């Protein structure tokens, strides 16, 4: 599954490596990888692999799940499609309360005590998805865990998930995609070490400019 999804994401340019000309994240971190899993929505074959993969994660790891809740905005469509495949209720969590109407942050019906799974597109430092988990818990849900498409596996993200006592299962991960990218010629094999150096310590930019 990890390699199949990695190949899918690389094929449609949802994950794009540029170790010699890094991207800059909103946080200011320089990254050798750009990830836009929204592109899976416009690639029906890949979309099918992703949604069936998310369905398999929920069925295997969270068999008691009663509803899926997507993160806003990237997780909403994936939650909706996966919930449709599974015949489950679905909702989503806004980044903040609406400033009009009922002022909802959680959209969709959520009964206190429901066992829910959060659907996320990618996890880096983990901050945004943990905010979603916290909002659902405050509303009375029992959050079984997270099902995500891609995770960087960054130390900070792993530590935050552990501290929040929430489990995440991803379809693929940074290491798997880096390996497939090297095997299929998207990057040079010698770039893998640089990519892993970034993943292990994003604040250390010694990997930039060909550093080995």
Automatic annotation (TrEMBL):
<feature type="domain" description="Phosphoribosyltransferase">
    <location>
        <begin position="67"/>
        <end position="180"/>
    </location>
</feature>
<dbReference type="Pfam" id="PF00156">
    <property type="entry name" value="Pribosyltran"/>
</dbReference>
<dbReference type="InterPro" id="IPR029057">
    <property type="entry name" value="PRTase-like"/>
</dbReference>
<keyword id="KW-0328">Glycosyltransferase</keyword>
<feature type="binding site">
    <location>
        <position position="124"/>
    </location>
    <ligand>
        <name>orotate</name>
    </ligand>
</feature>
<dbReference type="GO" id="GO:0004588">
    <property type="term" value="F:orotate phosphoribosyltransferase activity"/>
</dbReference>
<feature type="binding site" description="in other chain">
    <location>
        <begin position="120"/>
        <end position="128"/>
    </location>
    <ligand>
        <name>5-phospho-alpha-D-ribose 1-diphosphate</name>
    </ligand>
</feature>
<dbReference type="InterPro" id="IPR004467">
    <property type="entry name" value="Or_phspho_trans_dom"/>
</dbReference>
<comment type="similarity">
    <text>Belongs to the purine/pyrimidine phosphoribosyltransferase family. PyrE subfamily.</text>
</comment>
<keyword id="KW-0460">Magnesium</keyword>
<dbReference type="GO" id="GO:0019856">
    <property type="term" value="P:pyrimidine nucleobase biosynthetic process"/>
</dbReference>
<dbReference type="InterPro" id="IPR000836">
    <property type="entry name" value="PRTase_dom"/>
</dbReference>
<comment type="function">
    <text>Catalyzes the transfer of a ribosyl phosphate group from 5-phosphoribose 1-diphosphate to orotate, leading to the formation of orotidine monophosphate (OMP).</text>
</comment>
<protein>
    <recommendedName>
        <fullName>Orotate phosphoribosyltransferase</fullName>
        <ecNumber>2.4.2.10</ecNumber>
    </recommendedName>
</protein>
<keyword id="KW-0665">Pyrimidine biosynthesis</keyword>
<dbReference type="GO" id="GO:0000287">
    <property type="term" value="F:magnesium ion binding"/>
</dbReference>
<dbReference type="InterPro" id="IPR023031">
    <property type="entry name" value="OPRT"/>
</dbReference>
<feature type="binding site">
    <location>
        <position position="94"/>
    </location>
    <ligand>
        <name>5-phospho-alpha-D-ribose 1-diphosphate</name>
    </ligand>
</feature>
<keyword id="KW-0808">Transferase</keyword>
<dbReference type="GO" id="GO:0044205">
    <property type="term" value="P:'de novo' UMP biosynthetic process"/>
</dbReference>
<comment type="pathway">
    <text>Pyrimidine metabolism; UMP biosynthesis via de novo pathway; UMP from orotate: step 1/2.</text>
</comment>
<feature type="binding site">
    <location>
        <position position="100"/>
    </location>
    <ligand>
        <name>5-phospho-alpha-D-ribose 1-diphosphate</name>
    </ligand>
</feature>
<comment type="subunit">
    <text>Homodimer.</text>
</comment>
<feature type="binding site">
    <location>
        <position position="98"/>
    </location>
    <ligand>
        <name>5-phospho-alpha-D-ribose 1-diphosphate</name>
    </ligand>
</feature>
């Amino acid at each position: 599954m990890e390699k199949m999804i990695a190949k899918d994401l690389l094929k449609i340019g949802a994950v794009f490596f540029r170790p010699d000309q890094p991207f800059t994240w909103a946080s200011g971190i320089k990254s050798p990888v750009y990830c836009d899993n929204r592109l899976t929505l416009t690639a029906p074959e890949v979309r099918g692999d992703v949604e069936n993969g998310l369905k398999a994660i929920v069925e295997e790891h969270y068999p008691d799940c009663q509803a899926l809740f997507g993160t806003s905005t990237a997780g909403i469509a994936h939650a909706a499609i996966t919930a449709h495949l599974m015949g489950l209720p679905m909702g989503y969590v806004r980044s903040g309360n609406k400033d009009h109407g009922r002022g909802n942050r959680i959209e969709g019906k959520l009964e206190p005590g429901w066992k829910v799974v959060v659907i996320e597109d990618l996890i880096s430092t983990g901050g945004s998805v943990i905010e979603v988990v916290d909002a659902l818990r405050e509303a009375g849900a029992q959050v079984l865990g997270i099902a995500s498409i891609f995770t960087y596996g960054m130390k900070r993200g792993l530590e935050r998930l552990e501290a929040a006592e929430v489990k995440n299962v991803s379809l693929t991960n940074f290491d798997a995609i880096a390996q497939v990218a090297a095997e299929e010629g998207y990057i040079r094999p010698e770039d893998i070490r640089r990519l892993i150096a970034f993943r292990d310590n994003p604040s250390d930019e010694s990997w930039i400019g060909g550093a080995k």
